[in-house]
Amino acid sequence: QAEAALALMRRAPVMPVLTVADVADALEQAAALIAGGLPVMEVTLSGRVALKTMVVLVKAFPEAIIGAGAIIETEQIDAAIDAGAAFLTSPGMTPRLIEAAVRSPLPFLPGASSASEAMALRERGFRALKFFPAEAAGGANYVASLAGPLPDLIFCPTGGVDMDKAKNYLALDNVACVGGSWMLAPAPGETRDFACVEKLAREAFGLARRH
Ligand code: 3PG
């Protein structure tokens, strides 16, 4: 479980977070990300459309590794597995969710935003964690501060990350990748430009990291 989750985080320096509005848009987002070199992506599970879209994406892009994000209830785990998710992520963890994640057949990247939360997950065997919400919870300084007391934990900071902030996180010994949606966001007042998404994805793919 821990090894599989770590291997996922090491596939690409950035794990894009897709929010699904409609299937056609999600297909174009995923195509642009893959073309830009980011095949490991997380689809935020919010509502039925997200699950249906995941089924379509998984079929359309067998070369991609598409996970289900924003898991907050145990019931969502089976739904995500049925939809073809390759991995699962959560913004945080509850005792029930930890038990279900331990039993899950898929790699699970659980969310933590404090030393205590990270330690509780470590006790249950997790080594690859999301640091969420990364910027609001303390940013790169906070993640760096966890490396001393918790040297065997590796983080994927997510939440409020952009290209510049990604560089700071990826310079840390205990960060393998970052998550974010900055490469997918249209400029204010504009519709999404998929050529721009691909360009930003390619820049993100080129980010150096220590892991
Ligand atoms: C989210 O909160 O939806 C994801 O973690 C992505 O965060 P971001 O949109 O701030 O990159």
From TrEMBL:
GO molecular function: (R,S)-4-hydroxy-2-oxoglutarate aldolase activity; 2-dehydro-3-deoxy-phosphogluconate aldolase activity
Family to which the UniProt record says this protein belongs: Belongs to the KHG/KDPG aldolase family.
EC number(s) reported in the record: 4.1.2.14, 4.1.3.16
Family annotation (PANTHER family): 2-DEHYDRO-3-DEOXY-6-PHOSPHOGALACTONATE ALDOLASE-RELATED (PTHR30246:SF1), 2-KETO-3-DEOXY-6-PHOSPHOGLUCONATE ALDOLASE (PTHR30246)
Gene: eda
NCBIfam families reported in the protein's UniProt record: eda
Subunit structure: Homotrimer.
Name of the protein described by the UniProt record: Bifunctional 4-hydroxy-2-oxoglutarate aldolase/2-dehydro-3-deoxy-phosphogluconate aldolase
Matching Gene3D superfamilies: Aldolase class I (3.20.20.70)
CDD domains in alphabetical order: KDPG_aldolase
Pathway: Carbohydrate acid metabolism
Keywords, ordered alphabetically: Carbohydrate metabolism, Lyase
Transmembrane segments: none
Pfam families: Aldolase
